[in-house]
Amino acid sequence: MKAIVQDTYGSGEILETRDVAKPAIGEGEVLVRIRAAGVNPADWAIMSGLPYIARPVYGLRRPKNGIRGTDVAGSVEAVGAGVSRFKPGDDVFGWCVGSYAEYASVSEGSLALKPAALTFEQAAAVPMAGMVALQAVRDHGHVRAGQRVLINGASGGIGTFAVQIAKAFGADHVIDYTTEDFTKTGQQYDFILDNVSNHSLSDLRRALTPTGMLVPNGGLFGNRWLAGGGRIVRAAVLFQFGSQTLGNFLLSQKLEDLVALKELIEAGQVTPVMDRTYSLSETAQAIDHVGMGHARGKVAITV
Length: 303
Ligand SMILES: NC(=O)c1ccc[n+]([C@@H]2O[C@H](COP(=O)([O-])OP(=O)(O)OC[C@H]3O[C@@H](n4cnc5c(N)ncnc54)[C@H](OP(=O)(O)O)[C@@H]3O)[C@@H](O)[C@H]2O)c1
Prior knowledge:
This protein is an alpha/beta fold and 303 residues long. It folds into two domains: 2-126 and 272-302, Alpha-Beta Complex (Quinone Oxidoreductase, Chain A, domain 1); 129-246, NAD(P)-binding Rossmann-like Domain (Rossmann fold), CATH 3.40.50. The protein has helices at residues 41-48, 55-58, 120-124, 127-140, 157-168, 201-206, 229-238, 255-266, 283-291, and strands spanning 2-5, 16-19, 29-39, 71-79, 91-95, 103-107, 111-113, 149-152, 189-194, 208-216, 245-246, 274-279, 298-302. Helix 6 (201-206) links the parallel strand 9 (189-194) and strand 10.
């Protein structure tokens, strides 16, 4: 099968299209013929080997797994022993290791049936960004009608899901950051999801109500050693003072959350917002586009 492979860290030009062995499926696994793969800033970070502090996890000199991509949508081609939820021919979406390829073997518990109304590209756009947005807004923010919620980076992959999910739970308002700085308006919010890290922590605290919550979620890839790690430590210290709270979290990939997103999509409350799609041979351009930090919604690769 064709796959996009990296043997070293670097920018998009280190990626090569290669013929590699089709993955074998073990017990509880499903062989997915990939139709589309989602692109996330994490793919750019692992391709680049940044921040350096993460290299023991990625692989010290080269990535442990050379095929990037986690978000996947496709059709079940075969099922391993013990698989009960899927059969060949089912259209599915979820997460795996190495979705920039023609096939992947995927644990049954990392997949759900694809919402019928979505294209494969839209379905592949959902898992990581949708789950971050859901877990931030629902589990950390406990967002509900009557609250004031601010999503910084609302037009990006996570932001476009977070805005729709917050609205499904009862909130809405839009600020264009090129004309208005939300930390300077005097308006205060019960919950801020910060996908960008372009304001100081004290400005963000001023924009929170006295009992508001900040979820700092990324940005700062410019810091090649730590990315946002130093800011999170500073935030943890700062938020010791006063009654505002800090909702630090790392995405936890859960089937129940993928199913919750599928239900929001099927109920018409959430629709993946697509920026661009690329072909498999254009994977490097797709990852570099997302790595620039200004994607408009989600980017997907058509396989
Ligand atoms: N906590 C976790 O487990 C976890 C998991 C996945 C991702 N993340 C992190 O979450 C962050 C967001 O991910 P994403 O997929 O949403 O990224 P994305 O698709 O690249 O979106 C980035 C957003 O940031 C906005 N932006 C960039 N510069 C800005 C500025 N100066 N002021 C205001 N907005 C600005 C962009 O809007 P414009 O184009 O209009 O500038 C865009 O809306 C990334 O840093 C990622 O690493 C965290």
